[in-house]
Amino acid sequence: MDSIHDFYEKMESGNIMLSFKGEVTSNLLTSVLQIMETKMENLSEPPKIKKKVYNILVECLQNLYHHMDEDDPDTIVNEKSALFMIKKSDEGEYSIMTGNYIGVENAEIMKSRLDKINEMDRDQLKTYYKEVLNNGEMSAKGGGGLGMIDIARKSGKKLEYNFDPIDDKVSFFSLNIKIAQ
Amino acid sequence: MEELIIEGSPKTPTIKFNPSTGHLLVSGRSIPENSIEFYKPLIDILEAYNENSQANTKVDIQLEYFNTSSSKCILDVFKKLEAINAGSSEVIINWFYEEDDEDMLEAGEDYQAIINVPFKMIEVEE
What we know:
Largest interface: A-B, 34 and 27 residues
Distance between the termini of chain A: 39 Å
Structural class of chain A: alpha+beta
CATH superfamily of chain B: STAS domain
Helix content of chain A: 40-55%
Number of domains of chain A: 1
Number of helices of chain A: 6
Number of domains of chain B: 1
Order of helices and strands of chain A: HEHHEEHHHEE
CATH topology of chain A: Heat Shock Protein 90
Strand order of the largest sheet of chain A: 1-2-3-5-4
Strand content of chain A: 15-25%
Structural class of chain B: alpha/beta
Oligomer: heterodimer
Strand order of the largest sheet of chain B: 1-2-3-4-5-6
Number of helices of chain B: 3
Strand content of chain B: 25-35%
Low-confidence stretches of chain B: none
Number of strands of chain A: 5
CATH class of chain B: Alpha Beta
């Protein structure tokens, strides 16, 4: 039974407000967003921070949701499961962490997109966002590549990421979004 | 043409469009996972309205949150309004944002830069 206590301690000392591992469904997102909204209200967060965290959380979670929706044969075994955690540090900085399996080819595409976004400053991100908004092809799900740009703009920080190779077909994609105060 | 009324939900906004007054209201949250389907009735009615529009068309956008899936659909709505404005109606888009919500103000300015319709940025108290 020690391990449950270990889990608890890790989450407690890591300032984890909420964590989930499993299948990300539309109903789950509705509930998680409601829970986080209530938690932030109880913490009397300034409206500005509350809105930023909420907006970024919506994008992060919907990225996971749409990723699972994808019919990617390389990740089909693991695609139903993802991880997300929301943390508030002692200094009051929020972070949103997500993890999911991704096919190696998609991982390459994602990595170059994230690198491109991370090289941009605030004004470049604004220009790039408008360009993709106005000219980009909208995917059937409606995203169309705006999500990460929006997350980078609103968080005001670089997107921290990692791809852990699992085998020759699949990587584990970790994303850590810190939200500037 | 009948009035379009879509009641809001935790993930979708209230939409009201009255073709006989030329008033469109979008208010609340727009964070559905799939927004194309949701915005289709509004896009369709605006398309039909352009055939027989009022002299003035007033648009009030009072969004608290919207996701990137909605942002493209909102742009499509504005493109329809741009066509209406280029036709026989004078369109004004009132973009409401809560004080301190710089992200929402900036989002309005992004649309303003893309769409050739007069925008008015209106700050409201929280």
